[in-house]
Each structure stands twice: as structure tokens, then as C-alpha cells.
């Protein structure tokens, strides 16, 4: 039986984030956390979120083993909505080595609402495109609950959409 210590889990998280491009280059993208082990400080607080910031947030949600509370901080539905990225991560749909995701345009922007397209793919399946919305709540951009509901329907997850 293998036992995980906090250090082993942190090392695994750091390795996963590095592989996913979440270990940010502070000079290239100052909005991302400088320390990949300190994901609890990840927040998109810029006036207009960039595609790179939104992409990093989606990767944090579906392609890393970040703790539930860290993921909840990224979601409009908070802890009620964590079940969605948690299941997507566990199944491994959109994370290496067999899957990936990227956030692209076209984008729309209003003061407290931003949209972009999440493109997610997995080996042997066509790319899934979901027009996603982020909402600015208390100065932070969070993935909207209705976007999670659209994702659930698009990929056919057996999760009720009751976290709005």
C-alpha cells in the first residue's frame, strides 16, 4: 500500500503543473502564481481576462489534482460545483497524455461577464467546443455555472446541474 505524504502530494502537483504549463514564467505572465505549489493564490483579477489566464484556470480545474477548495475558488458555484472538474480530472478526459484543452476566441467582454471558447480533446474523440462564460465576482473571474452545465450536457456526464 502506498501512502502519500503532504510533500509527495506537493511534489506531484508541482510536476503536473509544470507539465501542463501552469508553472508560470513570472516575467511572461505576472497574473499566474509565481509558485506552482501555491495554487491557493491563483486568481484572475485583471480588468479584462486574457486567453492565457482563462486557459490556465481551465487547466487548473480539469488537468491538475489541485484540492477541491482551490477549484471551488475558480467556480461561480463554489464548492457545490466542484464535482464537475473533479470528475473530468479523475476520468482524464482532457489532460495529458491522452487529452488536452485550450481556451481560444472569439471573445466577448462586458464589465462583469466574459466569454471565450473552451476546446477540449481526447484521443479517439472529436474536439469538443464549449462557449464558456466567466463572471467577475468580488474582483475575481470565475467560470460560470451555466458553462459547467453546458459542458456536462456536451460530454454527457451523469451529473445533475443543480449548483447555480
Automatic annotation (TrEMBL):
InterPro entries: Mtb12-like_C (IPR058644). Belongs to the MTB12 family. The keyword Signal applies. Coiled coil: none annotated. The lineage of its organism: Bacteria, Bacillati, Actinomycetota, Actinomycetes, Mycobacteriales. The keyword Signal applies. It comes from Mycolicibacterium parafortuitum (Mycobacterium parafortuitum). Residues 1-28 form the signal peptide. This is Low molecular weight antigen MTB12-like C-terminal domain-containing protein.
Amino acid at each position: 500500500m502506498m501512502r502519500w505524504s503532504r510533500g509527495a502530494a506537493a511534489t506531484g502537483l508541482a510536476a503536473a503543473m509544470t507539465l501542463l504549463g501552469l508553472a508560470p514564467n513570472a516575467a511572461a505572465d505576472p497574473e499566474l502564481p509565481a509558485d506552482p505549489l501555491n495554487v491557493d493564490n491563483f486568481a484572475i483579477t485583471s480588468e479584462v481576462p486574457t486567453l492565457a489566464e482563462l486557459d490556465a484556470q481551465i487547466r487548473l480545474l480539469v488537468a491538475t489534482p489541485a484540492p477541491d477548495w482551490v477549484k471551488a475558488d475558480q467556480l461561480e458555484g463554489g464548492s457545490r460545483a466542484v464535482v464537475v472538474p473533479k470528475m473530468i480530472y479523475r476520468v482524464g478526459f482532457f489532460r495529458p497524455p491522452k487529452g488536452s484543452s485550450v481556451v481560444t476566441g472569439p471573445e466577448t467582454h462586458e464589465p462583469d461577464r466574459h466569454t471565450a471558447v473552451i476546446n477540449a480533446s481526447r484521443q479517439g474523440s472529436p474536439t469538443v467546443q464549449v462557449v464558456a462564460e466567466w463572471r467577475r465576482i468580488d474582483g475575481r473571474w470565475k467560470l460560470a455555472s451555466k458553462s459547467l452545465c453546458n459542458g456536462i450536457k456536451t460530454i454527457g456526464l451523469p451529473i445533475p446541474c443543480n449548483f447555480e
